[in-house]
Amino acid sequence: MFGLLLLSTVPHQELRFLLPMLSGFIFFLATTKIEISRILMISIFVYNIALAFIFGYYHESGVIPAIWKINSQQQSVLDAIKDSKFKLSGSENNSLSFSPNFPINTSENSPDFAEYKLNTVVWFVYTLMPPLHMADNYQKNVSSLVIKETSGMKKPDIINVFKKCTLTSSLDATKFSEIPIVYQKIGNKTFERTLAVIPGIYDPRIFTPNGENCGRGVNGCNDYGDGQSTCDGCKPPAGQNHACYQFELLTSVHNHIEFDSIGVYFATMFSSLDLNIYQLTYKNVE
Which helix (H) or strand (E) holds 209? Predict the structure, then answer.
């Protein structure tokens, strides 16, 4: 009983925290003459079978498949480099795109990717972060994958994180069967992109800097410290006329429930059981 009271004082509660008491509970039942009714025994079995299904099939089940999908994208980049399926664009060649559907780049000024660094930073928001050893960094000298989490952060803190993240140009899949993988130049021979993994019950626009004041039907604004709060006042990245901040959906993993957000699921009537993977981009606005 003392152990139960002690564990009950911990702010963060999970059923697994009671596992150390299981052996004592079994010993207590074995040494007492308390009889458990048939109805209660059946109820215990049904309850535990239901929990095993929910926690085994739904609870945070999308985290591992999500990192597998991101690993697959990383491998696609390496394959595209090998096959010269890439494209440099922008006023200063500051945007680098990869796709297996691109024509082979035969430019004489093609970059030597052995000297380049391609970074993918992945933020897991309001969900569990996968084990770091599952991030595919087999060829991290060329394409590195950095996993980060927002555990313990409140929404304003997450917004501040995304304010400092690297945004790429808007993804354009209209001419191709799949969305190109796009990076933005952040330094000499260094390109980067930022991904955000967020449960589908959350509208990603709540994490956009100044997003609530951004008009013209776009998700949010880039806030580069100029103190402006509307799209017309946002300072765009170098070489861009005007830009608005947005989360572009890359892919989703189904049958994912985050029990730390169970109240949100009930409030939204379980409207989404997806775990969504977004890329942080800017969209030019004339």
Answer: none
> Is residue 231 a contact partner of residue 267, using CB atoms and an 8 Å limit?
no
Helix runs in 108-188, H state only: 155-163
286: burial class by Cβ within 10 Å (0-12, 13-18, 19+)? exposed
Each residue of 87-127: pLDDT tens digit? 888 777 888 888 887 888 877 767 777 788 899 999 999 99
Intra-chain end-to-end CA distance of the chain, in Å: 67
pTM of the model: 0.78
Virtual torsion, Cα 52, 54, 55, 58, nearest 10 deg: 140
Helix runs in the chain, H state only: 2-8, 22-30, 38-53, 63-82, 155-163, 262-267
CA-CA-CA-CA dihedral for 22, 25, 27, 30, to nearest 10 = -130
Q: Which residues pair with residue 191 across a beta bridge?
A: 118, 185
How far apart, in whole angstroms, are the C-alpha atoms of residue 193 and residue 119? Answer: 6
